[in-house]
UniProtKB/TrEMBL annotation:
GO terms for cellular component: cytosol. Belongs to the LOG family. The lineage of its organism: Bacteria, Pseudomonadati, Pseudomonadota, Alphaproteobacteria, Hyphomicrobiales. PANTHER family: LOG FAMILY PROTEIN YJL055W (PTHR31223:SF70). This is Cytokinin riboside 5'-monophosphate phosphoribohydrolase. It comes from the Bacteria.
Amino acid sequence: MSLIRSICVYCGSSPGRDPAHLQAAEVLGTAIGRAGLRLIYGGGTRGIMGAVSDAVIAAGGKVTGVIPRFLIDMEATESELQRLDELIVTEDMHERKHIMFERSDAFVALPGGIGTLEELIEIMTWSQLGRHKKPIAIANVGGFWDPLSSLLDHMRDEGYIHTAHQVRPLVIDRAEDVIPTLMRKAPVNAEGEAAVIERL
């Protein structure tokens, strides 16, 4: 695994209903900033997105926001975006996701909606197809991602995930454990395809 210098965080642009989700975003953002890592994220300044980026900045870290032009007024204002170290405005979602991928050395999914799910699944798909070997982690705050874990197990059992060893994000229950786990990246276990998801 190459040196991790930047972390892409996928998460919701709304705060959700569980205060633990915002708290986890703050904990993760603080850890990213204190570790001297750069946050790569979707550029929003509200909800969980805003909580992560605010925490990184407060901890002295650097932030790159990547946002499509059409989302600027929905997820952030131009003045709010000026607090970021780097802002990249794209023409569409495809360009946004490609830039986030190129700029990131690892990926973390916090709770979010269908956009967060889509981004997580896409980066897992690219891994399965051999397009990258960057680590992927799921911050499973309060069991938020348990249904996805069950679905992936079901897909594997039904014979639709043939390279499970390449579709095994780290599932980490506590936000404070995400950065330390990624920095040491647990080795692949001897069971190979026995588990789609590795729980730490």
